[in-house]
Amino acid sequence: MYKEFAEKTFGGPFNNIELLVTAFTHRSYLNEHKKTVSEHNERLEFLGDAVLELVVTEYLYNTFKDPEGILTNWRSSLVRTESIGAAAGRYEFEPLLRLSRGEKRGTDRARAQILANSFEAVVGALYLDQGYDAAKKFITASILSTFEHILASGSWMDPKSHLQELAQSQDGATPQYKVITEEGPDHDKVFTVGVYVNGVLKGQGNGPSKQAGQQKAAEAALLQYQAPKI
């Protein structure tokens, strides 16, 4: 299975296929298979994170003349959990993940984080097995190829900042955020937040903090502003 994945994804075999297998091995799987598995993917994730950031930074530096602040925001949009988790989904990482029984039943949010982590681990494994150029080729195809869409959609901007810009230009008003509900015990609260423009609810979202709820609400409101006008 892993050999076929390497051939399909990287155009050739891994010299050390165990590196790739380890890249898909979650810590929880190791806990359930201590007699047969000796390593999980967190060290590879650590390495892959650095390689990913270097490749993206090098591309942005060599391609654009924009100031450091803009380049930093662009880089963040390319390497954030949502971006690399989506790339892992496109390359069908999920069937290859080695997880404990408990993690297999985890939440969508937890699974998205695991996919993102595995993507970084695979980059680390590829770098060790085949070198920087091979890792760069994969990152270019899987991550940098999405940059044109990120620029066009404005998704590289912080959602709250982007929403404020649109609301002020289209409605002449600043978005206001209000907590709609607050549920759960103190150690595991879920906040549902609404964002209003001129008193009209434009979007709502939830998260483990008010700030996270605001971000999700802003993302929902952006979909309204960016929807085609009929």
Helix content: 55-70%
Record field, number of beta strands:
3
What is the tally of helical segments? 12
Shape, per Cα inertia axes: flat
Q: What is the terminal separation in angstroms?
A: 48 Å
Q: Provide the number of structural domains.
A: 2
Order of helices and strands: HHHHHHHHHHHEEEH
Please identify, by name, the CATH architecture of the largest domain.
Orthogonal Bundle
Estimated share of beta-strand residues: 5-15%
Low-confidence stretches: none
Kindly state the mean pLDDT as a whole number?
Answer: 92
> Widest sheet: strand order?
1-2-3
Kindly provide the name of the CATH class of the largest domain. Mainly Alpha
Largest sheet: 3 strands, antiparallel
According to CATH, the fold-level topology of the largest domain is Ribonuclease iii, N-terminal Endonuclease Domain, Chain A
Going by helix content, strand content and strand pairing, the class is: mainly alpha
CATH superfamily label of the largest domain: Ribonuclease III domain
Rg over C-alpha atoms, rounded to the nearest angstrom: 20 Å
Structure in words:
This protein is mainly alpha-helical and 230 residues long. The protein folds into two domains: 2-151, Ribonuclease III domain (Ribonuclease iii, N-terminal Endonuclease Domain, Chain A, Orthogonal Bundle); 159-226, Double Stranded RNA Binding Domain (2-Layer Sandwich), CATH 3.30.160.20. The protein contains twelve helices and three strands; from the N terminus they run αααααααααααβββα. It has helices at 2-10, 17-23, 27-32, 42-63, 68-79, 81-90, 101-104, 108-130, 132-142, 147-153, 159-170, 210-226, and strands at 176-183, 190-197, 200-207. It has a three-stranded antiparallel sheet, covered by helices on one side. A hairpin with a 6-residue loop joins strand 1 (176-183) and strand 2 (190-197). Helix 2 (17-23) packs antiparallel against helix 8, helix 4 (42-63) packs across helix 5 (68-79) and helix 4 crosses helix 9. The longest helix is centred in the middle third of the chain and has 23 residues, at 108-130.
